[in-house]
Amino acid sequence: MSYTSEDWRNAIANLIQRTSKKSVSWTTSELFKGDAWTEVDRSFECAVNDKLFVVSETRRKHYLDEDVFVWNGGYDFSVFTGDKYDVALLASAPNDLHIIGNLFGAAAANFAHNSNVLGDLL
Amino acid sequence: MNSKTLLLVSILVPCVIVGVGLLKPELVLDDDGLSVSVVWSFIGTFISYLGFVFSLFALLEVRSLSNRYFAKRRLPEIKKKLEVIANRMTESGGLELVKIRTERFLGEITVLVKEIRKTKVSDFSPTVKLVIAHHGDLEKSLRDDTSLEKTANDVEAYWSLLRAVTQLADEIDQQHAGDLARL
């Protein structure tokens, strides 16, 4: 038994819905590290029960030959568990899902709103 | 009719006739039986029929190539538009249904669905049907005057539509990757 892309898409849509209803709130995160080919630009996390959901904007090196590469932008969605000092990665979504990009947009907007970005000007 | 069944039928029909001729020669040949001229005319007919089948095959193949080329040129742009729509749907999740009515993406989805159908890639049709169904549901709740104070958040069809739209974008990506490998 494993989760299909369909399951991931439904789960992420549910998280977008919760974000939109403001029943979860996002903060910046350092949990997701990427790998040798992947740089993490920005990352947001939110907690639902005992799980931490982390959505990140990533850049991945795509090598054209041995030493020439271009950056490919993308998004990552990972689920962590544990407390502040001992966090373990549970699973990552397949990264070819477009809806992860939408979740990142929603999370960034939610974070900006929570931190009262335009508060001093409006 | 599907092009493959058309080809299959055009190959099967002469096979049946030849089969009948072999099993019951009296149905196909007259009293003279098998003469040299009958054999030659049979060979001639067979070869010219082969030519007909091949040109039919070429015609269908050219049509599918041109469809594929059209899809290859058209789909990346359609995908970008789908992404824009999905982003706007995510952003306007907190709006009331009255405001959703005036948003442009609802109309744009209908136009895009038509354009996707024009590319004639049959792999998309289940998801396209899903998009149309959820779009219809959403329109229904937009027309319903009792639910106008609700926000888009509360309408399940809104999120189902968002899911279907992103699924369509994912499928276009996969199809495009397959197409790049094939040509």
Explain what this protein looks like in three dimensions.
The complex is a heterodimer of chains A (122) and B (183). Chain A has 122 residues and is of the alpha+beta class. Helices cover 26% and strands 39% of the residues of chain A. Chain B has one domain. Classes of the chains: A alpha+beta (122), B mainly alpha (183). The interface between A and B is medium-sized, with 20 and 20 residues.
Keyword list:
heterodimer; A: 122 residues; alpha+beta; 5-stranded antiparallel beta sheet; 2 helices; B: 183 residues; mainly alpha; elongated
Distance between the termini of chain B: 26 Å
Give the overall form of chain A. Answer: globular
Nearest-integer average pLDDT of chain A: 89
Which class best fits the helix and strand makeup of chain B? mainly alpha
How helix-rich are the residues of chain A, as a percent range?
Answer: 25-40%
**Widest β-sheet, arrangement of strands of chain A:** 1-2-3-4-5
**Largest sheet descriptor of chain B:** none
Radius of gyration computed on alpha carbons of chain B: 27 Å
Q: How many strand elements of chain B?
A: 0
Q: Which residues of chain B form runs of ≥5 with pLDDT under 50? A: none
The helix/strand class of chain A is alpha+beta
Q: Considering residues with a beta carbon less than 8 A from a beta carbon on another chain, report the largest interface and each chain's count.
A: A-B, 20 and 20 residues
Oligomer: heterodimer
